[in-house]
Design brief:
about 170 residues, mainly beta, Jelly Rolls, five-stranded antiparallel sheet
Length: about 170
């Protein structure tokens, strides 16, 4: 099994896969009235030709070890995700690659809780992992029924699986 080390989550490191914003601590000018500020359009999720976003929740427990066992991609839309109650470990590979070549290009990142990650169309990814604690709840934003009509998934062979080392993160 190959091992990869988590990369620091910076705009430059993450640019090939999308973008991210700290939703709980927004920066910039927030408009509003005394006692309320509104920070519009913090992240954009490409919905393709769909006109509605569906909000889903993924509950992840620490029973899942930090091993990449599958990769998926959405050809016609992006995806948004944010853990609401703990840091998550996520992994990506660039769009434009095919299986099995894509396995050699997987990178991993620790995403702090309340940081919204936007994934570009075609970027390979799959389930997040818990960094510490028992479980996390991840909000997912996708066009309705993407899992049924725009998901290509490959379950990796045992020898292709990737152990993610957090390197003390």
């Amino acid at each position: 099994m190959k091992t990869i080390t988590v990369k620091e989550l910076t705009l430059e490191n993450f640019r090939p896969y999308g973008s991210f914003s700290d939703i709980a601590r927004p920066a910039g000018l927030g408009g509003g009235i005394p006692g309320m500020k509104f920070y519009p359009d913090r992240e954009f999720v490409e919905l393709g030709s769909c006109h509605a976003a569906a909000i889903s929740i993924t509950e992840v427990t620490d029973q899942l070890k930090h091993v990449v066992v599958a990769l998926e991609q959405h050809a016609h839309c992006g995806e948004g995700m944010m853990s609401i109650d703990g840091d998550m470990l996520v992994y990506f590979a660039p769009a434009g690659l095919n299986y099995p070549q894509v396995v050699d290009f997987v990178e991993a990142f620790v995403v702090p809780r309340n940081t919204f990650v936007t994934i570009r169309p075609g970027v390979w990814h799959c389930m997040p992992f818990v960094m510490e604690g028992g479980s996390i709840h991840v909000v997912n934003v996708l066009p309705e029924r993407t899992y049924a009509n725009d998901t290509k998934m490959h379950v990796l062979k045992e020898e292709e699986r990737i152990l993610i080392s957090t390197g003390g993160c």
